[in-house]
Amino acid sequence: MTHSDHPDHGAHWRATALTLAAMLAFAGNSILCRLALIDGAIDAASFTAIRLAAGAFTLVIILYQRSGGIEVRTHGSWRSAAALFGYAICFSLAYLSLSAASGALILFGFVQATMIVAALAGGERPLASEWLGWLIAAGGLTWLLLPGVSAPAPAGALLMAIAGIAWGLYSLYGRNEQRPLAATTGNFVRVLLPVLALLALTAGLAEVSPIGIALAMLSGSLTTGIGYVVWYAALTYLSAMQAALVQLSVPAIAAAGGVLLIGESLTPRLMLAGALILGGILLALGGKYGRAPAAGKTPD
Question: Rounded to two decimals, what is the model's pTM?
Fold first, then answer.
């Protein structure tokens, strides 16, 4: 069911509100993670573990309330759980040295690149406009990552690139799930096993504070767990193209949040690179690749 199937104003405003809330949630993950790590309120491993555990707890409750039972054993997969864990830990580690804006741009760039490679491997062939869009986006990302005064830290950029690839794979694994909420809940419950292993390995290095724990729980429960549920609801009103296009707002929202809430600066290099990346993706999404991000599996 797409937005065009809901001509009444009430449905229009509901679709707009749900979509905006989902985009704010996804950008909020970058902001909350950066906010928790920038002042050492919590270490990256503990933030990841608490975020994933809180997300799993929240999703189990939501699934139980919606279906009257917990169906995690028959939904999701260990393959998806591994990709989810890889994304989450690299995401947290990357934000030890990246700003909210640059991290979101790198994440989105590599998620999209993963989608392109998968589409090409699956036999899809892009149009000339799609190639041009992706070349522009790749150029902007390359320029952002080139060494220089305002370039992001290489280690952080590499970790965020890995996070983007992992989330891209997670999205591809879950594209055909008939019950995305149940599948996501199953994946989050499965990921608790590597979370326990992570806590055991880093127990002696853990640095946590009440504010750090609160930020990690907020990220896991609100901007991850509930954020996914809101996004699934929004998707019932959006076409594949609309769903793909609205996600381009996330890096911009993350950048604005970083400036307003964390005091990060917007350098000319970051602003121009962001314009190239988002503009290139927007051009490319004018073609058939607009379908890929609309499967309900979006970066946080």
Answer: 0.79
